[in-house]
Amino acid sequence: MSAELPEYFFRVRDNGALVFRVNTADRSRRIEMDQIAAVNIRSGEVKPHGDRDLTAEDQAAITDWVTARRNILAARDVDDILRSIDTLNQTAQWAQAKATDEELELVTDTMLLAMHDLRTILVRKKADRTLRDRGMA
Known about the structure:
This protein has 2 helices and 4 strands, in the order E-E-E-E-H-H.
């Protein structure tokens, strides 16, 4: 463990995090983590823990973390989609080269419906962007 610990620790949870202030100032060098707030990543809402008043430094650290966390989650979303594209390609190869008639029967209708739904959305969004970019929307 490094000698210099961060001033804040964010325990990630669904839709946000619990925020702790890290303290190692006691004589025995024990690490104390004092919960100061809970953060909702979607709304950006910060709820101080108990009767706490958050300092400007606390607020700035939380705001910085929320911004960084949103960027991480957005990058993960894009990475998940790129992985889905790889999976679609692998599925096509499987269907062409390896799948039995019985296996294809199990997945074909559901796969076709999911692909139709996705294609419909992608085409509509592409048309919306094209019209907007041409100043027609």
